[in-house]
Amino acid sequence: MTAQKIAIVGLGKIAKDQHLPSISRHDGFDLAAIASRSASGLDVPTYEDLETLLKSEADITAIALCVPPQVRYDLARLALEHKKDVLLEKPPGATLAEVHDLIRLADENGCVLYATWHSRHAMGVAGAKAWLAGRTPTSGRITWREDVKHWHPGQKWIWEAGGVGVFDPGINALSILTEIMPVDLHITAAELTFPENCDTPIAADIDFQGPKGFAMKADFDWRQTGKQTWEIEVETTDGTILLRDGGATVLIDGKEVSSDEALASEYDGIYAHFADLLASRTSDVDLSPLVHVADAFMLGKRVTTEAFYDEQ
């Protein structure tokens, strides 16, 4: 196998914690360059911007965009216009329309476009999807609560318009939900809680409906301290399944079941899938989690709470 020369654009926390280690563990990729204002200390060519990188590193074939969603569209367009394959961190864009435009552009230029959802690669997700297949869900709940000061310290972009706020982690739950459910769901109501000094919500309560009376509630909150809660529970006519720890642990009717998957990281799954897409020259851009986020903003009742400050 000839390794794909890949470049990372945006060397922030997620790139350092997840993308760099997973790229280094996959034989199909060779980290060949980085475009970032904070890329010192790495033994690869570094550039301040993607345009300079593309002019200087003609043999790079793939670009992993790890920048905030508000600025990702223009960079993705630039990469695709240079006929580079593109991997998009989640969420794939600030709007649905811009991602649809990237899909069109990728197709026109014969490029692979991959919108990643790392939580779908959690160890228990594939088994949960298989268990739910053929069963009839009757109700469900999502509880996705974490401490934003721990996971996103000092990241002001998440509180600015387009940063999606609590939906940054909440979309992980939605990516699992849309992967495992055997029926389609839609949002019927939402309540979004905005700090008085922020453009994006810090909490959200959402109601879903599906066929045959199915109903589900989701509770997203970025103010939880101590133990974090990432759970999805689905009741069916033939038992109940509970995913804990962001999909890493699965219980069926209260009994924990094992998984055959053994990834060191969910991002190892992302890069394994990206390698397969590159080999088959196939794009993968599932927008269903982002559709739910957009619908929550469209239907959401706005509630204002006290100002949020990132100081520890």
Spell the H/E element sequence. EHEEHEHEHEHEHHEEEEEEEHHE
CATH superfamily of the largest domain: Dihydrodipicolinate Reductase, domain 2
CATH fold title of the largest domain: Dihydrodipicolinate Reductase, domain 2
Kindly state the percentage of residues in helix.
25-40%
**Overall outline:** globular
* Strand coverage percent: 25-35%
* Whole-angstrom Rg: 20 Å
Instruction: Tell me the strand order in the biggest sheet.
Output: 14-13-12-11-7-10-9-8-15
| CATH class wording of the largest domain | Alpha Beta
Q: Return residue spans where pLDDT drops below 50 for at least 5 consecutive residues.
A: none
CATH architecture type of the largest domain = 2-Layer Sandwich
Explain this structure to me?
The model has no long low-confidence stretch (mean pLDDT 94). The longest helix has 15 residues, at 266-280. With 312 residues, this protein is of the alpha/beta class. It folds into 2 domains: 4-115, NAD(P)-binding Rossmann-like Domain (Rossmann fold), CATH 3.40.50; 120-261 and 294-305, Dihydrodipicolinate Reductase, domain 2 (2-Layer Sandwich), CATH 3.30.360. Helix content is 31%, strand content 28%. The chain has a 9-stranded mixed sheet with strand order 14-13-12-11-7-10-9-8-15. It has a 6-stranded parallel sheet with strand order 3-2-1-4-5-6, sandwiched between helices. The relative contact order is 0.17. The protein is built from 9 helices and 15 strands. InterPro entries: Gfo/Idh/MocA-like_OxRdtase_N, Gfo/Idh/MocA_oxidrdct_glycsds, NAD(P)-bd_dom_sf. This is Gfo/Idh/MocA family oxidoreductase. Residues 5-114 form the Gfo/Idh/MocA-like oxidoreductase N-terminal domain.
